[in-house]
Amino acid sequence: MNERVSVFDKNVEEYDRWYDENERAYQTELEVLRRFIPREGRGLEVGVGTGRFGGPLGVDAGIDPAPNMLAIARERGIKAEVGTAENIPFEDETFDYVLMVTVDPFLEDIGAALREIRRVLKPEGTIIVGMLDRDSPFGKILQETRDEDKFFRFAQFSAAGEMIDRLRAAGFDAIRSAQTLLGDRLDTEDAYEIREGYGEGAFVVLSGKKSITQVG
């Protein structure tokens, strides 16, 4: 288990408590994600953690490389098992949609992870990526202060535009986006608006459809 994973596995309660202590931001993130979750179909959350997203959003299954996280995810109703984004332990074309939230900064190979997600998606299945946009006003602050946070000090944040390029390269099209946690402060009402696109909000959701074109 590498350091990026072990810091989560050793600090499960502290990680999970963040969502209670930052309820407004958490609920807003859930709201924008919910807009992209298909109403029907079987879903998988990659990097399910303690199930803070997959549970409320009704995702069926989840994987995570941190075993101590999975115990809590199971309590939240998710069929969770050990696995990594780069090596998903499911057969081809198993899921109607795959969710991945704030996982990309901790991946060894984002391209490989996106290709694996494409593999386990059914034809025209949906990928939903929730991410912290490095180029947003508050994202720049997170980038500058990451060494002060035990979880983020290993993070390699991406820009939303970079992630869109990666999604297309991995075989996804019909990309849509939305954002929240706007500006460089989270103590204003405006920060919690949800807007289309990206560039203003620290939390960005991107979704795409599995292209029918075969990726090499």
Structure description:
This protein has about 220 residues and is of the alpha/beta class. The protein has a single domain (about 5-210), classed as Rossmann fold (3-Layer(aba) Sandwich), CATH 3.40.50. It contains seven helices and eight strands; from the N terminus they run αααββαββαβααβββ. It has helices at about 5-10, 10-20, 25-35, 65-75, 110-120, 135-145, 160-170; strands at about 45, 60-65, 80, 95-100, 120-130, 170-180, 195, 200-210. It is globular.
Topology, element by element:
Layout: H1 3-9, H2 12-21, H3 23-34, E1 43-46, E2 61-64, H4 67-75, E3 79-82, E4 95-101, H5 110-120, E5 121-132, H6 137-145, H7 160-169, E6 172-182, E7 195-196, E8 201-210
Parallel strand pairs: 1-2, 1-4, 2-3, 4-5
Antiparallel strand pairs: 5-8, 6-7, 6-8
Name given to the CATH architecture? 3-Layer(aba) Sandwich
Average pLDDT works out at 94
CA-based gyration radius? 16 Å
Taken as a percent bin, the fraction of beta residues is 25-35%
How would you write the strand order of the largest sheet?
3-2-1-4-5-8-6-7
Major sheet attributes: 8 strands, mixed
Overall SS class: alpha/beta
**What's the CATH topology name?**
Rossmann fold
> Helicity range of the residues?
25-40%
Shape: globular
Q: In total, how many domains does the architecture comprise?
A: 1
What is the CATH superfamily label? Answer: Vaccinia Virus protein VP39
Order of helices and strands: HHHEEHEEHEHHEEE
Overall number of strands: 8
Short description:
Helix content is 31%, strand content 25%. It is α/β, with parallel strands linked by helices.
